[in-house]
Model the fold of this input.
Amino acid sequence: MMAKRIWKFGRVAMLAGLCASAAQAQQQGGNDSNILNLPENIQMLGDSNPNVRRATAVVNGAVLTGTDVEQRLALILAANEQQISPEEQQRLRRQVLRNLIDETLQIQEANALEMEVTDAEVDQTYNRLATQRFNRTIDEMKTYLTSIGSSPASLKRQIKGELSWNRLLQRNVQPFVNVSTEEVRDLYDRLEASRGTAEYRLGEIYLAATPANRAQVQANAKQIVEQLQKGGSFVGYARQYSEASTAAVGGDLGWIRLAQLQNSTLENVAREMSPGQLVGPIEIPGGYSILYMIDKRQVGMADPRDALLSLKQISMDFPAGTSQAKAKQQVDMFTKAVQKMKGCGTADAEAAKIGATVVNNDQIAVRSLPEALQAPLLELSVGQATPPFGSLEEGIRVLMLCGRDDPAVEAGPNYDQLMAQIEDERVNKRAQRYLRDLRRDAVIEYN
Done:
């Protein structure tokens, strides 16, 4: 399990990003597929399939309607970065129903323990999200939600579920989680020993599995990987299907040091990955993980791509109808003129002589530039320029380096931050067991 798979109060704000939270339990099941002593040849008696149901249910007496499911689904579809096929939408409906059931159990548990979240608290969070996150008035937010097929009530119910669950964890779980100073020191020593080694920013989609449903979960994970390989949005699929709390942020684990990956299989896989690479499904205790390498850097070392540059962009357009031969002549003339420039001090005057345009750009982060330009710019000294680049349609240009502020070396997490990471991990594990117990004791009727 990864250290960032945690339950945090701040998830409420991310949930207003119109994505579905997936608060599924990550059970630590084994790999024994015959733990239930099932026969090898299964023969169904009767035509009824208990898994084929309409998307409605009654949870301890609380009714979940098809409208509830469709309005929550509309929030997800509105936030998705690409079209979702009807087949995927049907899978998503089943996931939404499971989420709504968990949400109902969490609200009911908070009410039973006299920790009810009031309507005023929900309205306060909803109003803040509408005005601060979406830059809409309350009336505009209502109009928007209605236009996409959802409603304020659907989003408010999601907010109430999150507030209720966090309140339960704060009282019934967090006070009973203890971390010793020895554990923190041990982790700190391991992190220090890893200084200078690779650090990864990973995206994660986690699907929980038990011995009974492991084959089906693996098949679902493979389908997700196929969709991602065809160009599907990792962030979108993580929000829809991941059963880790990182689903709320599109599966982003942030910058992870290998010493913080508390699973040897995932650690070995991540070590071999390159930026932009997708790997999975990976079988781990409790389920399957799909990993996406977002970026990579050196632990405890400054990343050169975080340098801030002062640049002059010197450019010249080609007149309409310019031939390739004529363009080559102008490129040669432009290149020679740039080579004659004695740093940024003479660039403006020399550019004017050939009819070129100069635009000053200050405090530009290297990583914000196209990847093809990052390496050439990092190799320049002040006053030097990149090789010319462009096209007949866009003209020709160079970037001249006029100044560079290198990034400071990061100190890394301190003692308190490491303590919080370990505490969050343990809170998450207990939260999963808590939710599993609520599911086990629930009376659920499907229509």
Q: What stands out?
A: Confidence is low (pLDDT under 50) at residues 1-33, 48-53. The chain has three domains: 11-32+53-178+427-446, 196-301, 304-405. The first strand starts at residue 57 and ends at 59. The radius of gyration is 27 Å.
